[in-house]
Amino acid sequence: MKLNKKERQKLLQQTISSTPFITDEELATKFGVSIQTVRLDRLELSIPELRERIKHVAEKTLEDEVKSLPLDEVIGEMIDVELDDQAISILEVRKEHVFSRNQIARGHHLFAQANSLAVAVIDDELALTAKANIKFTRQVKQGERVVSKAKVASHDKEKGRTVVEVNSYVGEEVVFSGDFVMYRSKQK
Predict the structure, then answer these.
(1) How far apart are CA 20 and CA 61, in angstroms?
(2) Carries keyword Transferase?
């Protein structure tokens, strides 16, 4: 039995609500309509496309996990975190990140991405950078994507310090590396 538009849209909302990662193609098959019809229904109902739904779910999950700073204070887009273990963020280098005369990224943006990731990976309400040993290994240009990966290297429970190693890449090439000694309030 074919559903009318109102019924289909109601079921579409329920389906996406319960299964946010369902594709338009899967929805079209489920409801026996074209992909374009599903897209028009989503548009009418103000339901974002799959990519935006995935991003929203990921942000909500990360927001619940990251304790040391609000997600909007992480420089770049945080895509993964396992507290006191590892984290990953992506920074798309845009016009506002570069020098106007040569389109080379300003170093403080790369440092800020790495430092905020080092803070975010700490499983504590308070995490501060006590010391950083950093190295820029190549210039980054406008339009490049910097993937920053943080890994907790060690804990000194007595001193309340955690060492976080951060490497930032454009493709396979390391463009920045740093060891961040992080102060934390809890001795975990």
Answers:
(1) 13
(2) no
- The helix/strand/coil state of 186 is coil
pTM over 0.85: no
Tokens 């309509």 locate to: 33
Q: What is the pLDDT of residues 118-166, one digit of tens each?
A: 999 998 888 899 999 999 999 999 999 999 999 999 988 888 899 999 9
Domain 5-47 grouped into CATH 1.10.10.10: yes
Sequence ranges of the chain with CATH classification 3.10.129.10: 68-184
pLDDT tens-digit map of 31-68: 999 999 999 999 898 888 877 776 665 565 555 566 66
Distances (CA, A) of 24 to 39, 61, 62, 77: 7, 23, 25, 25
Q: Could you tell me where in the chain the CATH 1.10.10.10 domains are found?
A: 5-47
SS3 155: strand
User: What is the CATH code of the structural domain delimited by 68-184?
Assistant: 3.10.129.10
Report the chain's terminal Cα–Cα distance, integer Å: 59
